[in-house]
Design brief:
heterodimer, A: alpha+beta, Jelly Rolls, 5-stranded mixed sheet, 5-stranded antiparallel sheet, B: mainly alpha, 7 helices, globular
């Protein structure tokens, strides 16, 4: 094929052509090539590649995974009494920046609740009441409920919403609520003290030539707990 | 038979070059600097004008190369209509039909892949797989469809050669800008010394893409 093309090219340009015509023809052909290349680039580059959606058949199979964790965030404490047998804490997490290498730190977020329940000054002969712990996030499906006498250990998924690709705008947020309630509604008297804290973990991925996982690091977030 | 005087000449038509400039500027600069409805539509308008003329020019050039003579004006006209129809379908269907949008995303992603892979390899990285492009179906993008009429007008001008001479002249003018002056002077001396200088007539085979029918008389002096 190249040989045929070369023969064609040789036959196509007669040797008797004036030098200026040949020169113009060569440069004009180059100009057309430049326009063709520019047009190809413009037409192919008119839409950006989606970094999130990938073809199932040919999607990259290797990523660098970045782990994020913020541990032992104080949730506060509350005394549940006959007068106030239940209380709700609201927690707001705001991403303030992207993670290292521009990775999003807000995917696959999970909150782990833990804490202690203690009782004091209960009525004589009364048994310690069960305490219901309900964690829920309005942006996530489902919630988790548990009942305990002494320890809290619970997990809830979190969903960040907003523009998490550019978190500097400040509207990439997640929120969840922790509702605690004495199941005896205070009938046993005294007070039940709930002291809790929580960890939040998440991860982010970037395409890479070889799969790897980065060590867990503190995410670029601010966390705000609103007590009851 | 009347021949198209300048296969691929639409590539240097002012309307085509303006659309190319707008498309590059809008996609690479304006969309990032000041994203708005205007920048969203600008590329659509430029693209609907650019794509059919580009396809038509490529086919014209390919046809002239394979057949060793330009397409007839009638064939070029028919080819232009086919290119415009294909372009309109490629542009409009993804806006209104989900499977077409998916085909567009993966089709354009596949067309981009060889270049991305080459770039990755030249950067010492392993090429990634085919990634679909982003696309947002928006029926208001169909407002750009009338630009196909402009493409038809520009393409038919080229095909019929009604302005072929002036545009071939402009191509020669651009070409001369890129040529060293000495080479031109040498060429002129050669021409003066020749007893009989062959001239290309409108029906002759092209010497170079885009220069079919070009005669020395149209050279800027």
């Amino acid at each position: 094929m190249p040989g045929r093309w070369l023969r064609f090219e040789r036959n196509r340009a007669p040797a008797t052509l004036p030098a200026s015509d040949n020169a113009v023809a060569r440069v004009s052909a180059r100009l057309l090539c430049v326009v063709i290349i520019a047009s190809t680039a413009a037409l192919l580059g008119t839409s950006e590649t989606s970094d999130t959606a990938t073809s199932p058949a040919t999607s990259p199979t290797t990523f660098t995974t970045y782990q994020f964790a913020r541990n032992a965030i104080d949730g506060g404490s509350v005394d549940l009494t006959e007068a106030q047998p239940s209380a709700t804490f609201n927690v707001y997490i705001t991403a303030t920046d992207l993670g290292p290498d521009g990775v999003q730190s807000t995917t696959q977020a999970v909150v782990h609740l833990h804490g202690l329940v203690t009782t004091s000054d209960l009525s004589k002969g009364a048994s310690p009441p069960l305490v219901s712990i309900q964690a829920s996030s309005p942006d996530s499906t489902g919630g988790s409920v548990s009942q305990t006498l002494d320890e809290i250990a619970q997990t809830q998924t979190l969903q960040f919403t907003g523009d998490c690709a550019t978190p500097k705008n400040g509207d990439c947020r997640a929120r969840f609520a922790v509702a605690v309630r004495r199941l005896d509604d205070g009938a046993a008297g005294g007070k039940v003290t709930v002291n809790w804290s929580f960890d939040v973990t998440s991860s982010g991925q970037l395409p890479a030539t070889t799969a790897s996982t980065k060590d867990s690091q503190d995410p670029p977030w601010t966390v705000q707990v609103t007590p009851p | 038979m009347k021949r198209n005087p300048a296969p691929g000449g639409a590539l240097i038509h002012p309307a085509f070059l303006a659309a190319l400039f707008v498309l590059l500027l809008n996609d690479q600069v304006l969309k990032r600097a000041c994203p708005s409805v205007m920048t969203g539509k600008l590329s659509d308008f430029a693209g609907v004008l650019l794509l059919p003329l580009f396809l038509h020019a490529l086919l014209e050039l390919g046809g002239a190369r394979i057949r060793r003579q330009p397409l007839s004006a009638a064939s070029a006209d028919r080819l232009l209509v086919v290119c415009i129809t294909v372009s309109l379908l490629a542009f409009a269907l993804p806006e209104v039909w989900k499977p077409a949008e998916l085909a567009y995303r993966y089709g354009l992603g596949a067309a981009r892949w060889p270049f991305q892979a080459l770039f990755a390899l030249s950067s010492g990285q392993a090429p990634l797989g085919i990634r679909p492009v982003r696309a947002t179906a928006d029926v208001t993008d169909l407002l750009a469809l009338p630009m196909a009429l402009v493409a038809l007008r520009v393409g038919r001008q080229r095909a019929r050669g009604s302005r072929g001479v002036s545009q071939v002249s402009s191509l020669a003018f651009f070409a001369r800008l890129f040529l060293p002056l000495r080479r031109f002077q040498r060429g002129r001396m050669h021409e003066r010394s020749a007893e009989k200088v062959p001239r290309l007539m409108p029906g002759d085979a092209p010497r170079a893409p885009g220069l079919a029918g070009y005669s020395r008389g149209s050279l800027p002096q």
